[in-house]
Amino acid sequence: MQVATRSVRRYLAASVRWSSTNTNVPQISQEPKAPVRKYDPAMLPLTEPLDPTTMDFTEEQYAATLIHGRSVHEPFFHPRTHDIPVANIHFRSHHIPLLNLFTHFATHAAYSLGIPISKVVPLPTQRTLWTVPRSPFVHKKSQENFERKVHKRVIKAWDADSEVVAHWVAYLRAHVLAGVGMRVITWDRVPLGIGSYPNLAAIDNGLKNPSRNVPKQIANLGKQIIKDEAQGPTPFQI
Amino acid sequence: MPNARVLRDIKARYGVRANEIARRAYLFVARNETLPPQIRHHAQLQLNTFGRYTRPTTVKNRCRESGKGRGIISEFGLSRFQFRKKALDGELPGVHKASW
């Protein structure tokens, strides 16, 4: 409330000043300002939350005061309550540091959303090797080896509501790290009788790849050809 | 300008795609042993009227940089030498020199 009245008063003073003088030089307001305290790390740990109306600090500084330096540590892993799997997220990358950074980010996000997750589980690294001759033509004796490694991690999630998991996935997708691939597997709970849902067949057909109809088209055309051939040769048209 | 072999391959890919269903329908008739021989023979004659660039075996994987037809690393669609060049330049994500 106090902030609003203060700003209104400042606005009125400025308008009066612009109407009285025609110069383009802005003048410093002579009004007394509310004392602004600076953010000071020495105040840590705080006993009560910082007040943005009386203090001067950035959002990052504010966040750091909540639990000091929490982002550099492992997050708290919420305990599982029912052991119902809801999601697996696979991460893969050619670079381990990127993978570590992003899985760290993902675990902290899951902690903040209250999702019980596993630790980051490493999966076997996929290694592909190529050996090619160095030269464009012959000289097979001189060859060179190349490799590509795909490092993989997986995080499993349990017990969370599907909406919360969707938020988590959307958050990860929004802050996706270049060079890190993500594959999300989710399991949703559906009500009984979903099989008789009227549009289910239509949705299922819509998801199908159109190339799956090719064998059917071939069979139909084949039957047509057999039918035409069985009728005998077409007479000449004069 | 791509060379003649690359152009021929492009032509074959278009031709195969346009004629795939009709060709395979005639094959279905011609190889169906339960049908009378005359119908199967006619279907075979029809098959012979398709051009050479409608056969799927005409399609050949070629290097997309140099157009070379041999030594293709299919994952990248490159010939072995172009693969090496690009890998050394760091243009293929994650591929680097190895030794063991």
Automatic annotation (TrEMBL), chain A:
Keywords in alphabetical order: Ribonucleoprotein, Ribosomal protein
Classification via Gene3D superfamilies: Ribosomal protein S10 domain (3.30.70.600)
Organism taxonomic ancestry: Eukaryota, Fungi, Dikarya, Basidiomycota, Agaricomycotina
InterPro entries, per database record: Ribosomal_uS10, Ribosomal_uS10_dom, Ribosomal_uS10_dom_sf
Xref: PANTHER family: 30S RIBOSOMAL PROTEIN S10 FAMILY MEMBER
Subunit note: Part of the mitochondrial small ribosomal subunit.
GO biological process: translation
Organism: Gymnopilus junonius
Record family assignment: Belongs to the universal ribosomal protein uS10 family.
Name of this chain's protein: Small ribosomal subunit protein uS10m
Keyword Ribonucleoprotein recorded: yes
Domain called Small ribosomal subunit protein uS10: residue spans: 88-185
Gene Ontology MF term list: structural constituent of ribosome
TrEMBL record, chain B:
UniProt-listed InterPro entries: Ribosomal_uS14, Ribosomal_uS14_CS
Gene Ontology biological-process annotations: translation
GO cellular-component term (any): mitochondrial small ribosomal subunit
Assigned keywords, A-Z: Ribonucleoprotein, Ribosomal protein
Molecular-function GO term, any one: structural constituent of ribosome
Organism superkingdom: Eukaryota
Name of the molecule in the record: Ribosomal protein S14
Organism: Gymnopilus junonius (Spectacular rustgill mushroom)
